[in-house]
Task: structure prediction
Amino acid sequence: MAEMCAQAVALGVQEICFTDHFNNHLLDMDLGYYKPERYFQLLETCRQQFPQLNILAGVEVGEPHRWGRKIRPVIDAYPYDIVLGSVHWVGGENMFNRDYFNTRTVQVAYREYFAEVLRLCEAGGFDILAHVDLPKRLGSSIFGTFDTAAYEADLRRIWEVCIKNGITVEINTKGLRSPANQLHPTVEALRWYAEMGGARLTFGSDAHHPSSIAEEFETARQTALQAGLQYICRIQKRGIVGWVSLVD
Ligand SMILES: [Zn+2]
Result:
């Protein structure tokens, strides 16, 4: 975490949020690994060490609509600024396992995932929807380039629920570092979100390593503007506290 903070400072980043995975699917490789007590201790150490950086407390909860009984008490017990909600599993199958894609047509593979994301958003209880079209990271190496237009109805339904439930949408730049070679989501999907009245937006680099901190944020900024989104929102203590203009 300290290395990531040092990198953020070196890049001129003013605010960072660490969203460690808190996964509860029985087949998750990191099941039981999440240690919030230790996380908050380290966060405090980083805050002392890097007073010039605003360091937010976050967590990425996997499928909270399925594992809410395990997740909710932890979310309630600690002073999180941001809770990301995400889907990595459809039923018993993981989106980083080729079997999921090899046993489905392209349409079925992506649409089953979007149906699960819709259930996640309908259940709510988190602040930011993470990587809305995650399966394309691996799926693109099997099915070829992800075609956003083929899933317009699915994505619009997700946006509708996000807007209704006050869920912020993330531009996640890690898709550009994967076989998908696209942002999560693409400019087309963001344009539908803006057209429908969506405004809550944030950027995430899904870094997992200091070298990826804030990677491709300039691409994210330009893409948001192309889509008609002019601000990213600042979230603290689970609420929006400000809007930052993306215009130069
Ligand atoms: Zn994730």
Observations:
- Residues 60, 86, 88, 130-131 surround zinc ion (CB under 6 Å).
- The domain at 56-245 is CATH 3.20.20.140 (TIM Barrel).
